[in-house]
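In the laboratory, one determines a bound structure by crystallizing the protein with its ligand and collecting diffraction data. In a computational setting the workflow is compressed into a single prediction: the sequence and the ligand go in, and a structural description comes out. We illustrate the idea with zinc ion.
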Amino acid sequence: MTDCANCHAAPAAIEDIEVEPPRPWCLGCATALVRAGDPVLRYRSLGEGQDEYARVLSRGSTAAVRFG
Ligand SMILES: [Zn+2]
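The predicted complex, in structure-token form:
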């Protein structure tokens, strides 16, 4: 299991694929980014949290969301 690159305290739920190397985020940190207005829009799933993250993203972001 990959740990979150930010808090190192939780397993990563998603991985930001816009950066090199890809940066893993736990659900809590990824949610904080959405709330801060800087959501990870291009990501791949690393675990069960990705479905929840997709919901957070659809609720928390008014920007055009790109998938894939
Ligand atoms: Zn984290």
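The radius of gyration is 11 Å. Keep in mind that any predicted model is a hypothesis to be tested, not a measurement.
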